[in-house]
Design a protein that fits this description.
Layout (H helix, E strand, L loop, with lengths): L11 H9 L6 H4 L4 H27 L4 E2 L1 H12 L6 H13 L10 H4 L1 H10 L12 H4 L2 H8 L3 H39 L19 H6 L6 H6 L15 H11 L3 E2 L6 H31 L3 H12 L9
Helix pairs in contact: 3-4, 3-5, 3-10, 4-9, 7-10
Length: 321
């Protein structure tokens, strides 16, 4: 299906939120910005980012753990406050992406459609406004989730009101506008840059890659190649050195019984990843040795003779010599 790439009038609020970030420079805002304001913005970023990563993505999209009906509504509310539409809309499109990743049917492939489209263009296109309920039947059976999906602006306005009550207009600008814009682009970067920059640990049919930097700013979502290889895992950082803050938060929630049955990758997957890492190291060493040999040979016949003498030299001295 041909993608509608023009920017519609319905995208104006999205750009207005970006423009509103410059309100921080107004004397009335800048002068009342305090440590409390910055802490509020950071806290709302982390909490709402978890609503996206731990809720929209790892729960609603992939069902990588179980929770109660009440707490799944809490997760949908937190994700909704990030201004990325409803949980059912988000998860349905994400499931479609995994079925067709970097193929012609993929909604947001940077290799096929470019950085702008994969990053944000598809989100603004009215072509994808409708929730694909056929992709999310398991979650669409809950009427409260369908209501929140239809009225996804409610959590945003409630959060904005709370920001005002906590810290006035400075709280609204920093906690709602600035925090939301950072949320937008760190989330969108996984769709765009994590299919271009980074390294592949696992063989997949798409261009997904792992990125430590993106993992840090997205609470663990940057281990994107891991995720595309084994989508059902609650942790996307498969190894102890792969920092995955969302997984740590879910583990903590499991200790108090709010979530349970956290699915992890089997040992065969972990072993394959380690084997791939060893193979990459061997290839790198072989390449370095080949380059060094090539430079030596380029020095002329004397270098070749020296190499020959080195190869023919005994590995240990002859005690009878």
């Amino acid at each position: 299906m041909e993608k509608q790439r023009s920017i519609p009038l319905s995208a104006i609020p999205f750009f207005m939120i970006h423009a509103a970030c410059f309100l921080v420079f107004l004397p009335g805002i800048w002068g009342t910005t305090t440590t409390k304001t910055i802490i509020l913005a950071i806290a709302l970023f982390v909490i709402r980012k978890f609503g996206i990563t731990g809720g929209y993505h790892r729960y609603f999209s992939h069902r990588s753990y179980k929770t109660s009906r009440f707490f799944q509504f809490v997760l949908a509310w937190l994700g909704g406050s990030a201004a990325q539409k409803g949980a059912l809309w988000w998860a349905a499109h994400h499931r479609h992406h995994h079925k067709h990743s970097d193929q012609p049917e993929d909604i947001h492939s940077p290799a096929r459609d470019g950085i702008w489209w994969s990053h944000v263009g598809w989100v603004l296109s009215p072509q994808y406004n409708v929730t694909q309920y056929d992709q999310i039947k398991d979650m669409a059976k809950f009427p409260e989730l369908r209501w929140l999906n239809d009225y996804h602006l409610v959590p945003i306005f409630v959060m904005g009101g709370l920001c005002y009550l906590i810290d006035g207009w400075a709280g609204v600008v920093w906690g709602t506008f600035v925090s939301t814009v950072v949320l937008y682009h760190t989330t969108f970067a996984i769709n765009s840059f994590c299919h271009i920059l980074g390294r592949k640990r696992f063989p997949t049919t798409d261009d997904s890659k792992n990125s430590l930097i993106l993992a840090l700013v997205t609470l663990g979502e940057g281990w994107h190649n891991n995720h595309h290889f084994f989508q059902g895992s609650v942790n996307q950082g498969f190894y102890w050195w792969q920092i995955d803050i969302t997984y740590y938060m879910l583990r903590a929630l499991s200790w108090v019984g709010l979530v349970w049955d956290l699915k992890k990758p089997p040992q065969r997957v972990l072993a394959l990843g380690r084997q791939k890492n060893i193979t990459d190291a061997m290839v790198e060493r072989f390449t370095a040795a080949s380059d060094k040999l090539g430079k030596t040979l380029a020095k002329g016949p004397e270098a070749v003779t020296a190499i020959g003498d080195m190869v023919m030299r005994p590995t240990s001295p002859d005690p009878t010599a």
